[in-house]
């Protein structure tokens, strides 16, 4: 009688182990680097499917805008810069041998440590946007300068706005 109870318990435990082992990890939003699957909106990815590298290189120019700006104390990408980021994503996907460093900056308000963290979070936001679009993470590196190396000297809101940025530095 006790043997049947143990056998049933063992059967249930094995079934749960098999079900747990077969469950999906949930995947990521980054998708595959070959552009064949993932949760992509189709922007930038559909144009690359079926084309060889030379066709894409001929059609892709590096975007002329290399700087995007952020709101005060924010690492959210502003909607007006999404087209710029999509252009950089398409360029990087068309040129897999090209690497970029995302330089994050903050204005002078806040402590040095806080501004270094904010600059890093801004660069990471841009990195995440690019990788979701399909750019290989191996092409991207990040550096934060915080409030160092301001684009504009001054203590006005206009100067601060120009210093809250991420700059694309292509190698």
Automatic annotation (TrEMBL):
It is a lipid-anchor. It is found in: Cell outer membrane. Residues 57-171 form the OmpA-like domain. Residues 25-60 are annotated as: Disordered. One of its GO terms (cellular component) is cell outer membrane. One of its GO terms (biological process) is cell division. The keyword Membrane applies. Residues 30-44 have a biased composition (Polar residues). Keywords: Cell cycle, Cell division, Cell outer membrane, Lipoprotein, Membrane, Palmitate, Signal. The Tol-Pal system is composed of five core proteins: the inner membrane proteins TolA, TolQ and TolR, the periplasmic protein TolB and the outer membrane protein Pal. They form a network linking the inner and outer membranes and the peptidoglycan layer. Part of the Tol-Pal system, which plays a role in outer membrane invagination during cell division and is important for maintaining outer membrane integrity. This is Peptidoglycan-associated lipoprotein. It comes from Salinicola endophyticus. The gene is pal.
């Amino acid at each position: 009688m006790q043997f049947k109870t143990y056998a049933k318990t063992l059967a249930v435990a094995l079934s749960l182990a098999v079900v747990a082992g077969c469950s999906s990890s949930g995947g990521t939003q980054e998708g595959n680097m070959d552009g064949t699957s993932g949760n992509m909106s189709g922007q930038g990815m559909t144009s690359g499917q079926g084309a060889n590298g030379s066709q894409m290189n001929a059609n892709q120019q590096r975007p002329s805008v290399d700087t995007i700006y952020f709101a005060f104390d924010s690492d959210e990408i502003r909607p007006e810069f999404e087209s710029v980021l999509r252009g950089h994503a398409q360029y990087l996907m068309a040129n897999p041998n090209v690497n970029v460093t995302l330089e994050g900056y903050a204005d002078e308000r806040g402590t040095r440590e806080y501004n270094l963290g904010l600059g890093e979070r801004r660069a990471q936001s841009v990195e995440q946007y690019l990788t979701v679009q399909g750019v290989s993470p191996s092409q991207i590196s990040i550096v934060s300068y915080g409030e160092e190396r301001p684009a504009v000297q001054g203590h006005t809101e206009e100067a601060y706005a120009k210093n809250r940025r991420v700059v694309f530095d292509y190698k």
